[in-house]
Amino acid sequence: MKWKIVALLASLLVLPAMAADYKTIDWDLLIPEGEKLLPPPQLNHEDPMSVPQPVGGVNKKLDNQDVRIPGFVVPLEGDAKTITAFLLVPYFGACIHTPPPPANQIVLVRLAAPRKGLRSMDTVWARGTLRVDRGTSELGASGYRLDAAGVEPYVEKPR
To answer: Is residue 45 one of the residues assigned to a domain?
Structure first.
């Protein structure tokens, strides 16, 4: 009887974290209701560094939500072998080869532990608690922060 109580208590402590229900979202949901996705700014070939980044509003309903979202990795912090933080962006080349998208289309992903094997422009599923939190980096301004519970290679679900 005693071991059953211990097992029950252990399961109550472990299961909620393991069984967290992450809502799969897409990038359109990051844009507040009534606002349209702003087009990416055009490069000024006379002065490519002068491209202003569109700001874009955030969807405050997503604050503190457990979500899962696909995207491309833009490394921010780490070394040659591991990454501790990256920007998650909706399309290939964002923040690297083209001007950055609006802040509501950039998610700063913070990893609890350094992650090996992630490279620039890898496609991933990132899951964790999403927060409305503006951040800035040399690669672009983010409108959201994801405290990552996990990052996995992107694999589309079979239809």
So the answer is: no
Look up the pTM and report it.
Answer: 0.77
- Residue pair 31/59 in contact by the 8 Å Cβ criterion: yes
Cβ atoms within 10 Å of 91's Cβ, excluding its own = 14
Domain CATH code at residue 126? 2.40.50.870
C-alpha–C-alpha distance, residues 56 and 90, integer Å = 15
Would 26 be classed as within a structural domain? yes
Residue 77 and residue 102: Cα distance in Å, rounded?
21
Q: How many domains does the chain have?
A: 1
User: How many Å from the N-terminal Cα to the C-terminal Cα in the chain?
Assistant: 46
- Give the residue, 124 or 19, on which the prediction is more confident: 124
| 33: its two tokens | 């209701």
Using pLDDT thresholds of 50, 70 and 90, give the confidence band for residue 80.
confident
Q: Which two tokens stand for residue 26?
A: 């897409």
Residue tagged 């700014």 (tokens):
41
* Torsion angles phi and psi, residue 99, rounded to 5: -60, 150
Q: Which residues pair with 141 in a beta bridge?
A: 136
Is the Cβ–Cβ distance between 153 and 116 less than 8 Å?
Answer: no
